[in-house]
Each structure stands twice: as C-alpha cells, then as structure tokens.
C-alpha cells in the first residue's frame, strides 16, 4: 500500500538552485520545499542515506543572500523527464534563514496576501 505524504509542500514554478556548500558546485534545483525537507531535481541520482552540505543563493536587492544547511537523502529516482532525477531530502536542524525562506515562499505562493489587500 502506498503511503500518503502528510507534510504540506509548496511547489516552486521557478526553480531555486542548490549548491554543494563545500565545493560551491551546482547540485540541482528545488522542486518543492517544506520546513522538514525538499525535493531536488538533478542531472544525477543522489546517494540515499548520505548527508549533504547544501547552499542556497537567494538574489536580493542588496546582493546574494546565502543559506547553508545540511540534509540527508531519503530517496532518489529517475524523473519522467529523461536525464533528470528527483531526490527527497530530510533537513538536519534547519537554520533560521531556511525557516524564513519557507515562510516567505508560502506567503508568496498563497492567496492570503491578495485577500488581505482587497
């Protein structure tokens, strides 16, 4: 029996790039994100069970803001798009900046702020 996800995730229509924090090389793009984890879309499969040191580079009006965090790969499988892989990661003690990013994305991709201004 297939289990259903109980964690709310927010789909990102424009992908955020994820980098290896140690090498600064691109790992892939975020497919979706929550406070507990993220799905990475990459050109290579990820090693299940491995812990990865990751970095997000968020562009802003005052330059690029960097968010460093660690995550453990829970699963990895080929995407429906040939040459792409989807991998699920569980965050290891996400920093406050990561929590703020998820909250900001949740607000941005919701209709709550539109209803409040109407």
Automatic annotation (TrEMBL):
GO MF, one annotated term: cyclic-di-GMP binding
Highest taxon listed in the record's lineage: Bacteria
Gene3D superfamilies noted in UniProt: predicted glycosyltransferase like domains (2.40.10.220)
All residue ranges annotated as the PilZ domain in the record: 4-92
Xref: InterPro entries: PilZ_domain (IPR009875)
Pfam family name, one: PilZ
Entry protein name: PilZ domain-containing protein
Gene source species: Pseudomonas fluvialis
Classification of source organism: Bacteria, Pseudomonadati, Pseudomonadota, Gammaproteobacteria, Pseudomonadales
